[in-house]
């Protein structure tokens, strides 16, 4: 007489991945609590504070001419600086990964200098160099070109602080791309241009977009290194973080919250779009999995 085989118990739905290390509930609770305390709650408080004006008051404060001018300066210069950093940051990462030369390690370490350097020190140093009486500014002053105290100076400051994000994001991916891939491409008859555009760049696209997003976000929120070289002229070289500080000095806390909320919404929308492009790039080229 055969023993009856009881059906295996049905497993309930679970979003948790099996792991030999226990503590999922504890770590998840800590993660949510930490995320809420550091990020979510302050953002909600910011939105509530700015919503105190009501829809009409919020719109009026957000569309003020000076606010729009400051937002335009911040986001346009950040986009330009991030785009420049993508081009030159990719070239620098390529040189550091593909070539060996004297002083390479020192050069590689200098890339991280903007991470450790106080932003105010960077701003003062850049202003001293690019001011009309500075080492570089004096070269362009006789022909009427001003770098410091203009939007050009803002772009230079954003390039300085954003370059490490691009280089350090692309560099590890380049190290994973073997030289054999390039050699195989050449063996199959591809030109150098085709190897770069069809083999190398597709594998770097997600990293390039990530570096662009990080450099852009860093530039939009930068304050210390920009106020010294910007000139801070309304409608010309006044950035949004400085205008927020001015509103706080005027005890206009709601107005400052409105500007911060608008910056948050625009930044979130742009970063969300970049993440969508990254996901599309991974699906199309099969990298990043």
TrEMBL record:
Keyword Flavoprotein among record annotations: no
SUPFAM superfamilies: MetI-like
Pfam families: BPD_transp_1
Function statement: Part of the ABC transporter complex CysAWTP (TC 3.A.1.6.1) involved in sulfate/thiosulfate import. Probably responsible for the translocation of the substrate across the membrane.
Domain ABC transmembrane type-1: start-end pairs: 71-272
Transmembrane segments: 20-48, 68-97, 109-131, 143-167, 199-217, 223-246, 253-277
Molecular function in Gene Ontology: ABC-type sulfate transporter activity
Keywords, alphabetical: Membrane, Sulfate transport, Transmembrane, Transmembrane helix, Transport
Family of the protein in this entry: Belongs to the binding-protein-dependent transport system permease family. CysTW subfamily.
Chief location bin: membrane
Domain of life per record: Bacteria
CDD domains xref list: TM_PBP2
Assembly description: The complex is composed of two ATP-binding proteins (CysA), two transmembrane proteins (CysT and CysW) and a solute-binding protein (CysP).
UniProt membrane topology term: Multi-pass membrane protein
Protein name, entry field: Sulfate transport system permease protein CysT
Gene Ontology CC: one annotated term: plasma membrane
Keyword set includes Transport: yes
Subcellular location as annotated: Cell membrane
